[in-house]
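USER: If only I could read backbone structure tokens as easily as an amino acid sequence. It would mean a lot if you studied the pair and described how this chain folds. Here is the record:
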Amino acid sequence: MMSLSTGQRQQGPLPHFQSQTEISMVHYKRWAVAGLAAATFSFGGQAIAQQKWDMPTGYPAANFHTENIQQFAKDVDQATGGKFKITVHDSGSLFKANEIKRAVQGGQAQMGEIIISGFSNENALLGLDSIPFLATSYAEADKLWKASKAATSTALAKQGIKVLFTVPWPPQGIFSVKPIQSVADLKGVKWRAYNPNTSRIAQLAGAQPVTVQAAELTQALATGAVTTFMTSGATGYDSKVWEQVKYYYDVSAWLPKNMVIVSQKAFDGLDKPTQAALLKVAEAAEARGWKTSAEKNSWYLDQLRKNGMTVDAGSPALRAELKKFGDTMVADWVKQVGADGQAIVDAFKK
């Protein structure tokens, strides 16, 4: 069996626990999973027939992203005749959402799902799809991804990560405890941020950014830690935000994407037929995921209405002011990324 290096054992912060026993159990769970899976890669230089991988995601089992991934895992199993099995760990049960990328980089998980823009603090390039009012429809989001896919894949490849597929969230709107008519109504509110761009929007609006992951949103709302935030109807539905929030402004600001990634080392450890099967199933999962996201968007908004929320498109003044934020943030992004960033924006706008 392959042993884990000291560096691997140190990857990823642990949450707070009440006892050393709990800490030990979490260490055992994470590192045993990685060690067992690593043992399947090779033995004496010979590939072992069956592969068993773990795939963490931060989203609940009933979310359409997770359902798509579960189908992906089933399809991989079927396509390989049961020789390649992927176990999906939803709801941040194996690694929290913001730990998953590092877990894949460090070999603690062979693959995982991340929201791309959640890591734009590491590389500004990854924040492109959460710039407001740059790409506001599924067609535009697809065009933006095609313009940026090569650069994104290259950047992640330098970290030992291979991109398998992406799936967008529905368009982002504003949830608020109180009515919003203009940006002035956002001044001082506790604004949930899940990436640097959502924090930047808060700063531009004079709001107070509070970092909260999707799995923690319900608790943050219940305690008043946040009162206003931008996300999709899907996250609003998953979190039952209507229990605390009564207003949703469907401004279609952007369509952030989730990305399914795999350790390049783990991928290289697969035989060629298995690699081909994995890539083919990933292509199908991407097409299915984009289609499902578009289909479910209106359904999610209907569910918000049925649960007593006021849903509208937002006032012209609000949308115009947010558009100005977008123009500012596109310019800022190009300055950060440089010539490659300008080339991507130019290709998108053709």
About this structure: DSSP finds twelve helices and eleven strands in the chain. The first helix runs from residue 6 to 9. The radius of gyration is 21 Å. The longest strand covers residues 161-168.
